[in-house]
Structures are given as C-alpha cells and as structure tokens.
What we know:
59% of the residues lie in helices and 14% in strands. It has 530 residues and is of the alpha/beta class. The termini are far apart.
Amino acid sequence: MSGAAPTGDRALEHEIARRLAALQGPPPRGFARYPPRFLFGLALLVMVLVAVAMTLPNRFTGPDVLHVTVVLGVIGLWRFGWWFTHAARSLVYRRLLWAPKRAAAERVWAAGWRPRRLHVQMTTYREERAITRQVLLSILAQIRRERVPTSIWVGTGSATDEMNIREVIETYAQDIPDDLAEVIFVRQNQPGKRMAIGLILRGMSRHGVDPDDLVIFMDGDAIYGPDVLRKTLPMFGADPELQAITTDEEVVCFGPAWVTKWLQMRFAQRRLAMESHAVSDRVLTLTGRFSVFRARHIVDHRFIRTIEADHLDHWLWGRFRFLSGDDKSTWYHLLSQRAKMTYVPDTCIYTVEIIHGSGLQRMVENFRRWSGNMLRNGSRAIALGPRVVPPFIWWCVVDQRIAMWTMMVSPTLALFAVLIDPLYLTNVLLWLVATRLLLSAWLWRKARVPDLSWPFILYFNQIINAGVKIYMLFHLARQRWFNRGGQKTRAARGTLERVRGAVAFLQLVTTVTAFVTVLGIYAGVLPPPF
C-alpha cells in the first residue's frame, strides 16, 4: 500500500484498480481482522511494557515531581475521557441508531422511490489521467445500474482535463441514453476551486433544479465504492428532514510507507468521530471528497456566494478570502440553518493520494490546510451558540480550540520534570506508549488492517497537529493548498502587510513564551516573578 506511483497511465490505472480490489468488500470481522503476525507483535509489545513497568522505579510519586504528575494525570483523564465518550457514542450510533436508518432507506428504495434527478458536481485540476478514468468509470457504472437520471457537472481548469473526460465518456458510456446521463463542462475563468464550484452552481440554478433534487459534491480524485449511490440516495427518501450526508472514506496512497499508515490511522479516527457526531444529527465536516445535499440549499444565492467568496474579518489581517475549505463553508451554512446531517458508515469513497517529495512536508502542509480551515470556521460556529448548534457538537468545536493547548501541556511539563528528576522521563515514555496503545486498540476496531506502528504515529500526529494549530491560530490569513497545484495566498507586500506579519509573529512568540513560563514556574524549574 505504499511506494512511488508507477509511470505511465495504464500502469498507474492498473495499480489503482489492484489496490481498490484489495480494499473493497466487507472487512474481516472479530479476531479474523488481526493477522497472526500482528497478534504476535502485540503480545510481545505488551510483555515488554509489563516487564519495564515492573522493573522501573516509580518516579511519578516522587515528592519533587508529584505536583507535575497530578496535572498530567488530570489532563490525561480529561482527554482520554473525552476520547472514550466519542467511542461510546460511536458504539451507540453503529449498534443502535444506524440499523433503523438503513432499514428505512432500504424500504423506500424497494418501494420505488428515486430522486427526480441527481446532479454530480465535480472539480478536477490537472488530475492524473488514470485517476480521472477510474473516477468516471465508477460513476458511470452506478448510473447504469441504478437508472437514476443524472447530470454530471465538471468544473475543469484546462482543455486537457476536458479531453480526457470526453475520451472516457465516448468510449464507455455509449450504452447510456442521453436522458439518463449528461455531461456538462464548466471551464473556470478565475483561479481556485471555490470559483469553479460557484460557476457550476450558477449553471445548475439556471438549468432548473428542483428543490428536492440531490446534488453530490465531489473531488476529481474520489472513486465511488461499488454501492455508493444505492446506499446514500435513499437516505433522503426515508427522512424528509435530512439535508446532507457524508460517507466513509479510505485511501489509496502512493508514497512513503509511514504516510500510508498515517492516513489509514486518520481515516480510522474519522470513522469513530463521525459516528459519534452523527448521534446528534450533525457532523463536523461535509467533506469535499464526497457529500450529498438536497438542492434547495445548493442553488440558494447566499450559499453560492458563501462558496465563491467566503471570508473572515480579522482585527489584524483585515478581510481576507478563504482559499480552501469549501467543505467547511458548506458545513457552516447548513449548521447555521439548523439543517439535519448524518454519516453513512456502510459505503465508502476511495481517494487517491500521490505523494511527491517529502512525506513530512506533505503531512505538515495538510495540517496547515485542515487546521486553518477549522480555526477560520470554528470561531463563527461557536458564536452560533448551543441553541442553534446541538450542545454536544457545539462543545466539540470548542474542544478543538482547547485541545491544541492541552496536548502541549503534557510534553512541556514532562520535560521540566526531567530537569528535576532525569529518570522521570522513563516513566513518561512508558505512560505514552501504554496509553497510545490503548487508544490504538480502539482504532484498530475501525481499521481494515491494524498496524502496530499506530501508537507511535498517533502521538507524533497529535504533537505535530497541535503545533501547527497553534501557529495557524496567529496566521489565519496565510493559506496554501498543496493538493491544488501549490496554490497559496499572495506573499505579503507593502509596509502594512510586513507589520501585520511581524505582529502575528510577536503574538505567537509571546503567547508560547508565556505558556512555557507558567508551566516552568508551576513545575518549580523557573523562579516565580514575585
């Protein structure tokens, strides 16, 4: 599941198809999902942890560091309690709430319910030809099988994209009648994915879209699982109040092996979180990879302008437009309308990631984009309040802003404690591995293939993510989209922009310094100011 992408369209397409075949189908259940080699490695790791715990002297309760241990324990109980709250809610959704939803959807589909028309909004930007081909073949196969009249609106950035799509359509869609499927190209005349989506939505609104038509938002690298339309569309027929859904995701990654494992772990985390959020009839993002909406929201002029020109008025950066995060803008608009959303866990979209260059750089750039989108939208979602947003979801958004700081408390305090008692570090390392092993054990339940590296990748992921969030908190206007041709906001020019950058950097330095200083004083390493 790793390594460089094969050269040549046919070779890449064959390799994508091979990996998709390995991912599709129901995952093994129970102990069948844990290979013998994995179980042996897990048993060995647990025995090593137990042996180390029994031989190491207990430094946590030393009189000089006990106050540090108390804070680490309280924060750990809080964070792990929050984690297992999500885990419990995930179980409730999957074991109790989801089955009636699926049964109701199956009944309306069997009774003959179909949407009047399905609109697929897809943007593509200099995508690999092999990926575009797999994406279109997956869509055409399901249109052919489900017989739902469909308009495929493709926002393109070049004539090459359009030529590749026409070739696939002309070759593989000859048996699909025009009244069942049509392809409409919308060439963007302004840069950016947001403008491409806005042009498509304006075209839809002129085309005569019924409010109860369904609209799919998707990226040009999202390949449908074999039953996506069959599993998602009837959800709207079964629940007239439902306004938007998103689905499970899996990744086909060409790049360093550790990046593949990191992405697989991230998607396992996503499954747990999405199921937890769905208990409250909301989700925290309507992912741009693949989400389905009722058209009444999509063709609304305010919605279209939000997609095209969403912005933030900031005391330091002034008014600036969002470069990426169209899915967060979509989510915020529906959240403010108190629209019902849900998560469909039993069907999957497969995304293709081709990593060029440094895997670590790609990881950090992804975190910059994800964290920036979250922070830019989180403050206004919090401002809606728990009367508009379900209280649990509202607190989840609040917690996203708290967690980046609490995540950094533990390693900072632990490092200070090491200055008091160097052997304290051994106890901390044992605690880190043991707790992340426990968290990973729950994530393995959400994984197709469990991996023993996850406890270590999980902690690395948490530290890097928290650090990037803290940086982005003070640099909200600095945006870059690695996946979209390296798009980024224009470099700061002029005296005013240089002053803004200097003030943001000063804020970052003083805040982090104050954070570290307070913890150092509490630990007893730094002298109090008075």
